Amino acid sequence: MTATILAPGTVAELVGDAVTAPSMHNAQPWKFVFSPQGNVIELHGDPDRAMTRTDPDHRALHLGCAAALFNLRVSAVHHGLRARVRLLPDGSRPWLLATASLDGPSDEDHELAALHSALRRRHTSRFPFGDEPVPDALMDGLKSAARLEGCRLTVPGAWHIETVLGLVRDAEHREDIDPLVRAETSAWVSDTHAATGPRGDGIPAAAFGPRSSAGPSPVRDFGRDLPAADRGWAVFEKRPQLALLGTPADTRVDWMRAGQALERVLLRATADGLATSMTSQALEWPELRWTVRDPLEVMGHVQMVLRLGYGPPGPGTPRRPVAEVLEIRE
């Protein structure tokens, strides 16, 4: 067991690694509280950063916070610590999503530590990918990564990929005609062209990616209502390589497991030289989400649609300062 209280600098490094996680519209809906007594880091969801229109049940918020939790686990192992995690530990505090009690030395598998180098290299890429298929061996590794977190990653067949892409287009049309949804998305979009700017969250113009010059693209167009003159045009892959991440049930615990599985898969893909993005539009509409699942696979609920391939990794997006998301109790 750790004999001394963790230094504030070490805690800040752990949280700094944690917040490199992806979140819906890069809203970064998390807060961390460190209690020196017991070396416990609490992970709280931030309701002020929730998407009330497109994520009313806070499913996506849980996914993002759980991805940050996985990064915290990776960072802990990297620092020679072990994170004993409890999910949803207090039913009377719904925004307390997890606790991580830190002690050491770590006896976890070395695979977690090996993912640390991918934390700050993982970026969502809204650029075209090449047509080179992801090798079966790499895909098997990604499936294994999901299983390690109690989830399932499946690769839909060609016919179902077309179904999913059709549902994405349907979701985009619904967003087009819903002014509240468009306003909610626009609130998290910035016209800055750098990962560092006046705000530490949201999607900067540099991360929009190019416009598609040949039909709809498989990524969300954040520049639709804030055109960027120098985005350019590009041809996206005709048949994106998609994977569905799912869970047996659809409870808050399932969401927390899925978020950790999502980040484990994304980091594993990054370490393997793959570019990634997430396609969540169809999952934001209850009437479409059920249809995303592949009826030929044993999967209860799809939690995320991933796009994988070989292409530009995508630019970094801003992150809030650690001091803004971390509270250290006396």
Explain the layout of strands and helices.
Elements (H helix, E strand, L loop, with lengths): L7 H11 L11 E6 L4 E6 L13 H20 L3 E6 L8 E8 L6 H5 L21 H13 L3 E3 L3 H19 L2 H8 L24 E2 L20 E2 L6 E7 L4 H20 L3 E4 L7 H7 L8 E9 L12 H4 E3 L2
Parallel strand pairs: 1-11, 6-7
Antiparallel strand pairs: 1-2, 2-4, 3-4, 5-8, 8-10, 9-10
Helix pairs in contact: 1-2, 2-7, 4-7
The parts where pLDDT drops under 50 for at least 5 residues are none
Number of helical elements:
9
Mean pLDDT: 93
Strand order of the largest sheet: 3-4-2-1-11
Radius of gyration from the CA trace? 19 Å
* Helical proportion, percent range: 25-40%
Strand content: 15-25%
**Apparent shape:** globular
What pattern of helices and strands is seen along the backbone?
HEEHEEHHEHHEEEHEHEHE
- What would you call the structural class? alpha+beta
Would you count the extended β strands for me?
Answer: 11
Largest sheet: 5 strands, mixed
